[in-house]
Design a protein that fits this description.
The complex is a heterodimer of chains A (about 325) and B (about 170). In chain A, strand 7 and strand 8 form a beta hairpin. About 10% of the residues of chain A have low confidence. Chain A is built from eight helices and 16 strands. In chain A, helix 1 packs across helix 3. Chain B starts with a helix and ends in a 5-residue tail after the last helix. The longest helix of chain B has about 35 residues. In chain B, helix 5 crosses helix 7. Chains A and B meet through helix 1, helix 3 and helix 4 of A and helix 1, helix 2 and helix 7 of B.
């Protein structure tokens, strides 16, 4: 019988994705062998997670700090006045010159595992979930485009409708309202959940009817069949869990859960077994929970194996 | 007038040093808890501004400044959390969260623990481990960079891992 011995340094290479093909193969063989020491593997993975650091620009932060705290002398203020005039003129010309080039498009983006809150010029608040992108033209901050998932708290302004359009041309129009729009490109559905107020869901391409929503309703658009389905939501059960740092799903098939996991952890999840992909799970996790821990817990109710293919950087579920 | 200017520049120099010393750690801690780059940056900025405003009242010892910074930052995180919570209660969305206070203290403990582990390591070991962890260099690349053998690189990594395994026992 073949025996596998793996050193911690090899494991570290594998987990920190700096290993070469020989080591990757070795570790993967080890993982599928009886010698696999799962506790050790988890330990090293957790060390890797905990030692993560971001590298912010201290210089930039310093500069910003000093401009805030330094007392402004009168001369400085005088200068500032002129500088402001100058900037207005320059930017005036600039805008005039580049109007056609869409330089006035404002884009806010999040990467995987990141969330942002944005206050729009009209006072509306937007919470942007992981792997999402929100954009609008500087002149029309109430006409938004969204890719991914966002929660909107809309400032009242009856004269100017507030609309959110998704990549599949679904438009959600609101008047003084809070709602959630979910439209990840790789997801088979686009989903709108309404919490307060009134919302109208329509599309210039996909379907003709305009769907009116009342609070605690959800409208799901199925991209393949072009079906529009309206249903009730139970806010206590799932709702907009991501806003409080949770990944939650109730009786959802694994394939759909995988889309949320990808947005959160940044790695594609591929299924090699249809039966598992279509299995339903219910669960609630903090977004800080490592993905392999989530897999471990899901495994309790339905047996499957998962492994990370470090070459393609995706999880394989069998 | 002149005196005022010089006293400002001394204070500035001190703050410049404080930024170099503490900014990274505070920012990384805030990001671990908040998971938002902009918000983390904002709260750390406000923390330093508060120190600037209260600088004359804080004892100028290493420790009291550091504890002023971390206490202020923790409070700011809690404040921010409370603000968000009020909004949530208002829209009647979520059940009340368990005490965030214990959670953020735990996170800070972890950040401190990791820093302490780094200080127990030889400088060389720390450098090599960070090249692997933060820069994503392979052992071979590190060995070429440092002019040492791959075996030696592995030895340093293995030392660092052993220290983390021991030092972070309760967290693994």
């Amino acid at each position: 019988m073949e025996h596998f011995k793996i050193t911690e340094t090899e494991l570290w290479e594998y987990i920190s994705q700096t290993a070469d093909d020989t080591t990757i193969l070795k570790v993967e063989k080890w993982k599928n062998s009886p010698d696999f020491d799962e506790a050790l593997f988890t330990k090293i993975t957790t060390i890797h997670k905990h030692t993560a650091t971001k590298d912010p620009s201290v210089q930039q932060a310093k500069k910003r700090f000093f401009t805030t705290v330094k007392p402004k002398t009168r001369i400085w203020k005088e200068m500032l006045k002129y500088a402001a005039v100058l900037i207005v003129i320059i930017s005036g010309i600039y805008v005039y010159d580049t109007l056609s080039l869409d330089k006035n498009l404002i884009v806010v983006q999040t990467t995987f595992g990141e969330q942002k809150s944005i206050t729009l010029p009209d006072g509306s608040n937007v919470w942007l979930n992981a792997s999402s992108k929100l954009s609008y033209h500087i002149k029309t901050p109430r006409t938004l485009s969204l890719e991914g998932e966002g929660f909107f708290e809309v400032a009242k302004d009856t004269l100017h409708p507030f609309t959110v359009t998704t990549p599949d041309h679904i438009t959600v129009k609101a008047l003084g309202t809070s709602f959630n729009v979910k439209s990840y490109i790789d997801s088979p559905t686009t989903e709108t959940k309404l919490l307060t107020g009134k919302v109208e869901v329509s599309s210039d391409e996909q379907f003709k009817q305009k769907v009116l929503m009342i609070p605690n309703e959800k409208v799901t658009f199925y991209k393949h069949t072009k079906e529009v389905v309206k249903s009730k939501i139970d806010l206590n059960a799932s709702g907009i869990a991501w806003r409080e740092g949770k990944i939650q799903f109730e009786n959802k098939i694994f394939r759909e859960i995988a889309i949320d996991l990808k947005a959160q952890f940044g790695k594609q999840i591929r299924f090699k077994n249809e039966d598992i992909a279509n299995s339903k799970f219910t669960g609630s996790f903090n977004t800080t929970t490592p993905i392999n821990e989530i897999f471990e817990i899901l495994k309790i109710s339905k047996e499957f194996t998962y492994k990370l293919n470090t070459k393609t950087n995706e999880w394989i579920i069998e | 007038m002149n005196k005022k200017t010089t006293s400002y520049s001394i204070k500035e120099a001190k703050f410049s040093n404080l930024f170099d010393k503490h900014y990274n750690k505070l920012y990384n801690y805030a990001f671990k808890v908040l998971k938002e780059t902009d918000l983390s940056e904002e709260l750390v900025q406000e923390t330093f501004i508060k120190l600037w405003e209260n600088f004359e009242n804080v004892k100028e010892s290493e420790r009291s400044i550091e504890s002023f910074l971390i206490t202020t930052l923790k409070n700011k995180i809690i404040d921010d959390f409370r603000k968000k919570q009020t909004r949530q209660k208002h829209t009647n969305l979520y059940a009340l969260h368990i005490t965030i206070e214990t959670e953020i203290d735990k996170q800070w403990e972890l950040v401190e623990r990791i820093e302490n582990i780094y200080t127990t390591l030889e400088q060389k070991t720390t450098d090599i481990f960070k090249l692997s962890r933060d820069k994503g260099f392979t052992y071979k690349e590190i060995s070429q960079k440092k002019g040492i053998s791959i075996k030696t690189v592995e030895l340093h990594i293995s030392k660092a891992l052993a220290a983390f395994k021991k030092g972070l026992k309760e967290y693994l």
